[in-house]
Design brief:
It contains 13 helices and 11 strands. It is an alpha/beta fold. Bound molecules: heme C (4 copies).
Length: about 400
């Protein structure tokens, strides 16, 4: 296991204590501290005759008092090229992975955690190292089985070769279609649009061909990888002991620390700082308010209540109004009537405007940059599409 950046929010001693209590098999290879870390820089074991080494690479931006984070390439470049299966746990992105692979050619796999990119089949880097990524939020679990052949360096993955071949086919089909449409097109704008699409698919085709070559390169003996992703849907049962632990923690959060998320007393004005809440806007903008009330923004708070996550610091910020602004709510138990994605989530804080509507103006047409603060391609499962989403909120 690789301790992630967020795990250190309560400091290194806390993480060390938890890891020891739960015997978490942490590994951290590029961090050195004034007092030695309680985890090794590499973990190794033998399995069915093969030797396996696991390294963990902390993000370069990790800040820990008394510690320094070393460059990943530097930390790993001493690994010899051998029969040992070398696995690097990291979450650094493709460019960094490629750089590290060049400096440390002994690495076989980069295993990502919590990456926004889900790779249904592993992707080969130029050195032959493979990147495996099951994606964020624990929705998919990756299971990889390996068969090691003595003396082999290259990996063969039947699933990946088939997928890359399909990528090449798809690009080729699109290019043929585009060529036919271009031959018929007469309008200049249509032509230039088709040319841009053609450029896009030509690039895709080239990338797919390179990836296919890499996935099928089989000079000499090869090791075999079989990688599958399992969806953690309803067909996968709960792990009873873990489920009980989570339920107990939720009960402490909902029970001891809170009144139920504060209901604004009748007659009391909602709001905090420069935020006033949607109810203050409806009298003057009844039409917009009526339209808004039919969007899921008006019910966004209920969604996290239904999930029993309303007191979770990781959840409430996008499901209420004003949490991204310093003067807005900062405590999930004190909402000041700002539940839901209200008017001000898009138009900006409204206190000054309600006092002087014709002089203190709000944003008339909220830009998409405002939407993607919440529709961040991570928590929303990458569903945001400007062209289909914007019309749904217009009023
Ligand atoms: C403060 C965070 C936030 C901002 C800003 C925001 N949204 Fe949303 N949006 C959400 C949340 C949360 C939901 C899900 C509500 C639910 O169902 O619980 C959502 C849902 C939606 C949906 C409904 C999706 C569906 O099919 O059910 C659309 C459409 C949408 N947003 C468009 C936009 C657009 C366009 C903008 C910018 C003009 C925007 N949003 C700005 C948080 C936000
Ligand atoms: C960065 C902003 C953000 C955070 C943080 C966030 N959400 Fe959301 N959530 C969204 C957006 C945006 C949507 C709308 C997605 C869509 O339909 O396009 C959404 C939709 C939802 C929905 C309804 C639709 C669905 O996907 O089932 C639920 C339930 C939900 N979120 C729960 C949560 C929980 C639980 C957390 C905490 C782990 C959380 N959200 C944290 C932005 C966020
Ligand atoms: C998800 C983002 C979003 C939310 C939430 C939202 N709006 Fe808007 N609003 C827009 C967009 C986009 C426009 C510009 C397009 C349009 O006119 O519909 C707009 C335009 C407006 C306008 C200007 C209309 C005009 O004729 O120029 C008013 C007034 C307004 N909104 C009020 C409200 C009020 C009041 C609420 C809450 C009840 C609200 N909005 C909630 C996105 C939002
Ligand atoms: C007392 C009545 C009143 C209230 C309350 C009010 N508005 Fe307005 N709003 C107006 C008037 C009047 C205008 C037109 C201003 C102009 O054209 O000079 C306006 C304009 C707007 C516009 C267009 C951009 C601009 O500022 O000209 C938006 C967006 C808007 N209001 C959103 C809101 C939101 C969000 C709230 C709640 C926080 C709100 N309004 C509360 C009266 C009100």
């Amino acid at each position: 296991m690789l301790p992630a950046r967020g795990d250190f929010a309560f400091g290194l001693p806390f993480v060390a204590e938890v890891a020891t209590a739960w015997e978490l098999p942490y590994v951290l290879s590029n961090v050195t501290c004034s007092t030695p870390l309680p985890w090794p820089a590499v973990r190794s074991f033998d399995k069915a005759g093969a030797r396996v080494e696991v390294y963990g690479i902390a993000h370069p931006e990790l800040k820990l008092p008394g510690c320094s984070v070393m460059d990943a390439g530097q930390a790993l470049e001493g690994i010899p090229v051998s029969d040992t299966v070398v696995i690097v746990l990291a979450d650094l992105g493709r460019t960094a992975e490629s750089d590290i692979a060049v400096r440390a050619p002994g690495v076989d796999f980069f295993l990502r955690a919590d990456s926004t990119e889900t790779l249904s089949t592993p992707e080969a880097l130029a050195t032959g190292a493979l990147v495996l990524s099951s994606g964020a939020r624990g929705k998919l679990l990756g299971v990889a089985t390996v068969e090691v052949t003595p003396g082999a360096r290259a990996w063969r993955d039947a699933g990946a070769s088939a997928a890359r071949a399909t990528d090449v086919d798809t690009a080729t089909t699109r290019l043929t279609e585009l060529a036919t449409r271009k031959a018929k097109a007469t309008d200049a704008r249509e032509l230039s649009r088709l040319t841009r699409q053609e450029e896009f698919w030509t690039k895709k085709q080239a990338t797919a061909r390179t990836a296919l070559d890499l996935a099928t390169a089989t000079a000499g003996p090869t090791n075999v990888l079989n990688n599958t992703l399992r969806g953690l849907g309803d067909d996968v049962g709960e792990h009873a002991p873990t489920f009980a632990l989570v339920a107990a923690v939720k009960a402490t959060l909902t029970g001891s620390q809170s009144a139920p998320a504060e209901a604004t007393p009748a007659g009391a004005a909602a709001g905090i700082g420069s935020w006033v809440g949607s109810a203050a806007c409806t009298t003057c903008h009844a039409a917009q308010a009526a339209q808004w009330s039919h969007t899921s923004h008006a019910r966004a708070y209920a969604s996290i209540v239904a999930d029993d996550r309303q007191f979770d610091q990781d959840c409430y910020s996008c499901h209420i109004t004003g949490a991204f602004d310093g003067t807005g709510p900062t405590d999930p138990r004190q909402l000041h009537g700002l539940e839901n994605v209200g008017c001000e989530s898009c138009h900006g804080a409204g206190k000054a405007h309600i006092a002087a509507p014709t002089t203190a103006h709000l944003v008339r047409e909220p830009p998409t940059s405002q939407c993607v603060q919440c529709h961040d391609s991570r928590q929303d499962g990458g569903r945001f599409d400007e062209l289909t989403y914007r019309p749904k909120v217009a009023h």
